[in-house]
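Sequence, please.
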């Protein structure tokens, strides 16, 4: 879940919006304006629209606080969060790797619902302190905003405690199963299966409500179920991948027969003679007999076609000193984490000052495919 719009950094963590955020923000504003107009038409259209917009913005601020709590607790446990993205169904903290023990998983999982619950209680407490009473309609725009935000955060806390992996409740369930079984992979598979079952219930309930006259509300529940089903499946696959690569080193999967090319070759020659004919995606560029960098199809795509005959590989390559490198003994999972962090598809494999080869995502996929064919 990558950001479409970057808003800046908070505590060193990049904050962004996914394009789907605008859809849910619009729906929330429309829903709130209708709700406020029904209960307090006397406030006038300008106040109602302004109140709806501000309430929606503050709701996403509370979502950001929820995700930030995950990120900050993860940081105290030695896990790095690359970014937080707000999207249609809430937010996601992109923690770069999975917790290595059940306690960390529990703490990172539980803090999100707790933070939402605290926010909800505080907001309702403030509303109570300035005149609102339970079961009474908020009399002022400020009270209406505080009450809605208070209840929605309590609802968010309760929803996230549903034991459907990878919701926070599912992660808490996984941590408990992990503590009792002492097997993180098995715990994840069990929690993911519970998550899939809950997702299917959501889908069935949504479809039933839709045909019972609930309209969009039913479809929305079904969509949430579909999203949870996809997320649970992907999370289980990710952990299975980690288990499948346990103990595997970069030297086991890397490509060592890298194509070496002269940096003075122009891009048009490179494409016609090597890129299109070899089927390879990564090439090593030499200058004065030494390795200078790498060039891939990604660099070619960023160059306008008319410039190909007049641009050399040295002009577009990614210099070796600007690339993260890995050693042959580096665990493959660590190499994949580096690729994900740097948003690249390959890494040079270096021992000493010598280039031993290149490891790519495709190498890893092929390795796993071969293992699967052999039943390992």
């Amino acid at each position: 879940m990558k950001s479409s719009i970057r808003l800046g950094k908070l505590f060193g963590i990049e904050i962004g919006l996914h394009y789907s955020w605008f859809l849910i923000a619009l729906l929330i504003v429309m829903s709130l304006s209708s709700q406020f107009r029904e209960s307090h038409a006397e406030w006038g259209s300008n106040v109602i629209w302004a109140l709806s917009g501000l309430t929606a913005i503050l709701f996403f601020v509370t979502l950001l606080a929820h995700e930030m709590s995950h990120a900050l607790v993860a940081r105290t446990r030695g896990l790095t969060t690359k970014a937080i993205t707000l999207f249609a169904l809430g937010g996601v903290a992109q923690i770069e790797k999975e917790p290595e023990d059940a306690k960390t998983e529990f703490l990172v999982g539980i803090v999100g619902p707790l933070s939402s619950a605290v926010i909800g209680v505080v907001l309702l407490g403030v509303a109570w302190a300035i005149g609102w009473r339970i079961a009474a309609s908020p009399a002022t725009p400020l009270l209406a905003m505080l009450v809605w935000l208070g209840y929605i955060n309590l609802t968010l806390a309760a929803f996230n405690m549903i034991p459907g992996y990878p919701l926070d409740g599912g992660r808490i369930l996984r941590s408990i199963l992990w503590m009792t079984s002492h097997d993180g992979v098995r715990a994840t598979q069990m929690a993911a299966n519970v998550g899939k079952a809950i997702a299917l219930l959501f889908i069935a309930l949504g479809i039933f409500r839709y045909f019972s006259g609930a309209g969009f509300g039913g479809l929305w529940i079904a969509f949430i179920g579909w999203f949870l089903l996809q997320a649970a499946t992907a999370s289980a696959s990710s952990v299975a991948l980690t288990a499948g690569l346990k103990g595997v080193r970069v030297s086991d999967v890397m490509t060592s027969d890298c194509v070496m090319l002269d940096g003075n070759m122009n891009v048009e020659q490179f494409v016609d003679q090597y890129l299109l004919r070899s089927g390879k995606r990564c090439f090593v560029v030499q200058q004065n007999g030494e390795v200078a960098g790498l060039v891939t199809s990604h660099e070619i795509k960023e160059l306008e076609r008319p410039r190909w005959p007049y641009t050399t590989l040295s002009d577009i390559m990614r210099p070796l000193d600007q690339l993260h490198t890995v050693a042959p003994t580096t665990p493959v999972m660590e190499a994949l984490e580096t690729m994900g962090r740097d948003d690249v598809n390959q890494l040079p494999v270096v021992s000493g000052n010598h280039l031993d080869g290149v490891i790519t995502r495709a190498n890893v996929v092929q390795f796993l495919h071969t293992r699967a064919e052999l039943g390992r």
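The chain has a mean pLDDT of 85.
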